[in-house]
Amino acid sequence: MLSSVAHSLRLGCQGSRRSIATVISGNKTSKLVRERLKNEVEKMKSQFSGFRPSLVVLQVGDRDDSNLYISTKLKAAAEIGIDAKHVRLPNTATQDEVLRSIMSINENLSVHGLIVQLPLDSVNHINNELVTNAVSPEKDVDGLSCINAGKLSRGDLSDCFIPCTPSGCMELIRQTGVSVAGKHAVVIGRSKIVGAPMHDLLLWNHATVTTCHSKTPDLPEQVSRADILVVGAGRAEMVRGEWVKEGAVVIDCGINHIPDETRVSGKRVVGDVHYTSANQRAGFITPVPGGVGPMTVAMLMENTVQSAQRFLLNNQSRT
Ligand code: NAP
Ligand code: L37
To answer: Per residue in 27-75, pLDDT tens?
Structure first.
């Protein structure tokens, strides 16, 4: 009875919908991160006579979405003062050729960060695991090698590179002022790039974490328990507002293109969360676009600057 009074008070006198959630802007937060990094790079440049952090983005093939994300990354790097190179191999490249290319970048002392943009677009069979593990852990700014992923899963957070998307999600959660410790967090998805590292990050920030996947029965029930919900399933608008706990923090990693005849392009981008209904229940919510996407780019820049700083530290102590 009491809880139903509290509930109707929250709903307001008319019993109408709850006020809408606070939107957490990835565009604004990523801009702040990029400005901070630009200052750090300027300091490095003046302290170490023209030294610049450097990043290589290796692409196999020619996927439209990868082309777009890579050009966003190159533009962000240029603005910050990171020297970024795009190395593109044709979709006919063999696994050996891809591995050889990675090895040669590993050996190049002037490169501090190397990512292989996934998914690979190749006519040949290429083992993703072999490729992500070939990147030297010291340059693995995507945090996808076993060494970095293993450290993260054990809670050695200060000693590894954290994958960019989950790292960006944590930054957005921090923006809300809601503390993670002691909260119940639910992650939908268990991929190596989003769900699994997100689980680890939340866990080691002291949340109690439930990770859901395609075999999880009763997803709405799991979602309804989340104080913090992070979704990376790749299913357009799958999470409905009615599932969401009132006041929850909702972070939507999904990037899905759905048909929209009102647009010139004939399509539009939506997340994995049904935004308009979730907006009525959540306390905080990220939009798509303009949420997690720009943060993924900003955190890649952050990892690259961190890698260059570690390089300088190691080289100084050797001299
Ligand atoms: P993925 O490798 O396809 O993984 C999807 C995960 O979601 C899997 O673990 C899968 O479960 C789970 N899943 C799929 N359908 C489900 C369902 N109906 N119920 C519960 N779980 C379900 O995808 P990903 O690379 O992690 O990407 C996920 C989404 O994030 C995509 O929309 C992608 O475009 C987006 N993304 C965004 C960014 C960004 O910067 N914003 C970066 C990377 C990815 P199983 O393991 O059982 O198959
Ligand atoms: N680091 N990121 C890294 N490594 C990889 O292997 N695949 C992959 C990866 N993913 C990635 O780059 N994702 C990504 C997704 C979205 C954006 C950038 C990077 C982005 O900028 N999204 C915008 C625009 C979305 C759109 O219109 O399509 C956004 O506002 O969400």
So the answer is: 999 999 999 999 999 999 999 999 999 999 999 999 999 999 999 999 9
Nearest CA to ligand 2 atom 4: 117
Q: Provide DSSP, 245-300.
A: PTT-EEEE---EEEE-TTSTTSEEEE-SB-HHHHTTT-SEE--SSSSHHHHHHHHH
Residue 212, SS3 per DSSP: strand
For 247-264, write each residue's pLDDT tens digit: 999 999 999 999 999 999
Report how far ligand 2's centroid is from the alpha carbon of 66 (Å).
8
Cα 288 from Cα 270, distance rounded (Å): 6
* pLDDT tier at 159, thresholds 50, 70, 90: confident
Q: Which two tokens stand for residue 118?
A: 């996934």
CB atoms within 10 A of CB 221: 10
Identified catalytic residue from 31, 38, 45, 73? 73
| pLDDT tens profile 59-115 | 999 999 999 999 999 999 999 999 999 999 999 999 999 999 999 999 999 999 999
Q: Is the previous residue joined to 289 through a cis bond, with omega within 30 degrees of 0?
A: yes
Cβ(294) – ligand 2 distance below 6 Å: yes
Tally of CB atoms within 10 A around 156: 12
Q: Tell me whether residue 73 is one of the annotated catalytic residues.
A: yes
41 vs 115: CA distance, rounded Å: 20
- Best mutation site among 131, 296, 297, 300 for ligand 2, i.e. most ligand atoms within 8 A of its Cβ? 296
Residue 164 CB less than 6 A away from ligand 2: yes
Report DSSP letters for 118-159, one per residue: SSP--SS---HHHHHHHS-TTT-TT--SHHHHHHHHHT-GGG
Domains and CATH numbers, the chain: 49-136 (3.40.50.10860), 163-292 (3.40.50.720)
What pTM was computed for the model? 0.94
